[in-house]
Design goal:
2 copies of one chain form a homodimer.
Chain A lengths: L4 H12 L6 H10 L6 H13 L4 E3 L7 E3 L5 E6 L5 E5 L6 H9 L2 E12 L1 H7 L1
Parallel strand pairs in A: 3-5
Antiparallel strand pairs in A: 1-2, 3-4
Helix pairs in contact in A: 1-2, 1-3, 2-3
The structure holds a DNA duplex (30 and 30 nucleotides).
Chain lengths: ~130, ~130
DNA sequence: GCCAAAACTGATAATAATTATTACTTTATA
DNA sequence: TATAAAGTAATAATTATTATCAGTTTTGGC
């Protein structure tokens, strides 16, 4: 994989945004910052970085994929009110891979956990 | 929600198919069985049943949604070789909701776990 | 530095899953 | 049974994502 200026700014934008952005969102930010980047380039590079493990692709939320520069094992929570995506520490499901492999006999290469509910901020606002 | 013949056969087809079918798959089965049903009707009813909790919608696998008539809490495993979707007992992640709520302070309404890997059948075939 | 090969890009067309629309039909109930 | 609400079939529309392709960058050897 060669260097590319576009991939670099896409990665930086992802890393700077705690919100777990979608491809479209990153594209909008870069366009505002006057970059002449193409949406296809954003998709291409996010997928490329995801498949080589440099970033993480989060699927199964709404209808679009989101991306995460944090590749350390962790899970996600999406707020049903504000749509924000939060990280959840992996300690909430200790030894889940070992337990599942023991129980099923399958080989597990990866797993994802997504929680849905109401975040603290939105709970406060409700009152 | 009123009764409809179409919804009934969609539910029956879902319940009869252990494979966690997609909307398209259910539609194909029903079309073969000569029903004049429309694909939009299949989508409409699966989503309606899912949102009232009568069935479960499984997202985050490939690019299409799958459905499960088993509403008992459980998780899913998708085989990277054959694409088959298996159920995983909820015991692999004991107290995950309580733990996550305690740790984050968020209210959790639902959660999904998806494992990716190789199933037993495909592991046997590999040798 | 120069050059060819490989990798990459922007623009846009194509694809595929899902949802919206609409005229008509079925269901529930007063 | 009449009528309003809910549902349907057929298909157009939408939306996220991927493919295509001609042109540009990057890279490593000379």
């Amino acid at each position: 994989m060669n260097y590319s200026r576009q991939r670099e700014i896409i990665y930086k934008t992802l890393a700077d945004n705690v919100v777990h952005p979608s491809a479209e969102y990153i594209y909008e930010i870069l366009k505002e910052a006057d970059s002449k980047i193409s949406l296809a380039t954003v998709y291409r590079n996010l997928n490329k970085m995801a498949s080589c493990g440099h970033i993480k692709k989060i699927e199964g939320l709404e209808d679009r994929a989101h991306f995460d520069h944090n590749t350390f094992e962790h899970y996600h929570f999406i707020c049903e009110k504000c749509g924000k995506i939060y990280d959840v520490a992996k300690e909430v499901a200790p030894e889940i891979v070992k337990k599942t492999q023991d129980k099923t006999g399958f080989t597990i290469n990866s797993h994802d956990i997504v929680f849905h509910g109401i975040c603290l901020e939105c709970k406060k606002k409700e009152r």
